[in-house]
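Batch job 17 of 40 flagged for manual review because the log was empty.
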Amino acid sequence: MTPTTTRVQLADHINGLTVRTDQFKTQRISLTFMLPLNRESAALASLLSRLLVRSTKQYPTPTAVQRKLLALYGARFSSQVIKLADYQLLNCSITVMNDRFALHGEKLVQEAAAFLLASVFDPHLEEGVFPAADLAVCRRLQIETLESTLNDKRKYAISKMFSLMCENEPFGIEIGGDIPTVQAATGEQIAVYWRNMLATAPVTVAVIGQEDPAPVFSAVQNRFAGVDRHPCPPDTAFVYRPAAAVREAEEVMDVAQGKLVMGFRTNISTMQQDNMALRMMCDIFGGAPYSKLFTVVREQMSLCYYCASRLQSQKGFLCVDSGVDNRNIEAARQGILDQLEAMRQGDFDEAVMEASRLSLIDAARSVTDSQEAMEAWYLARLLDRNADEPDQWIRRVAQVSKQDIQQAARAVTLDTVFALKAREVA
């Protein structure tokens, strides 16, 4: 059975998404809230995400939650916070075995949906606030996550570049917040944030599998009927801020390998228009082993340990990050810019274009390999003007020409350069 997608409006800014497929023996249900992104809300959302899956009013301890999941034949229950342009998505999900496999005729999908909704609408509170003991555990885990970013120097350098490039834009804020804000957050603040989320956030309810989504959608509608909703819809207008003077910054750390990260702006975004040519351009430029950054800057010129490009599609950003020795930073930077110019001039052949086309098509086809991948596909497109299905994506890939790719490359302009240098040994 080929997956079929249906969208339905359940209430004002509460949308249902169904992907019907008999490919899996499980059903996945999720609630995703779209929230503004700022320094305080990033910390509060990350802590709330952890608190909602730690305990509920009915199951007030992690042990009680796990026992309930085991009773649901080992259902998987999780939450995450995802950055999407200038917003953050708080996503809570449960994956449960299909009803027909239940040993005693249990309505597993309805039970799982009820449990998921209870976790979001009836969390474990004490006198209206999240308990201090639960918050202490979640705060420690979140701080450990933030500290791990500093230990991952590649991730740290990319994050640092975007914080500089988007200094006055929400996108520049690190998802998960910062350590001081996480440390200062209180159970009362998070409870206020949670209630405001239920009242104002646009919601997507996703049901992926072969079971009938109607009971799930009905349960969601009943739950929200008791909430005084005044939704704040997201701004889906694309604002292009052309790169002016190139911003440059550097840090020195005790690292074995330096990092060079270059941020580029384009005037092409999925919030504005079709960006398939830009995707192919990014792939040929630095997204694969056949790319120019890999074959020329890394292999032929031996300037980098790695060198790759990636897109932030909703914002129209392109990022190139590389691992370099201090002595090669300037040469690597120039080499990267030279290969961008080569892309503009059409210095790539049909064989590379075909390899890129097949790679992007394979990526679209792999979306149906798991329910998690299907959900991620649609969540990543909540702000897009053209929210493609995978088969639509494949058809558009086939239509991109060499001239389209060159034109996309001409839209790419350097904005910010961040270098993380290894400390020199005297």
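Reviewer: the log was empty due to a logging misconfiguration, but the result itself is present. The chain has a mean pLDDT of 94. Unflagging and moving on to job 18.
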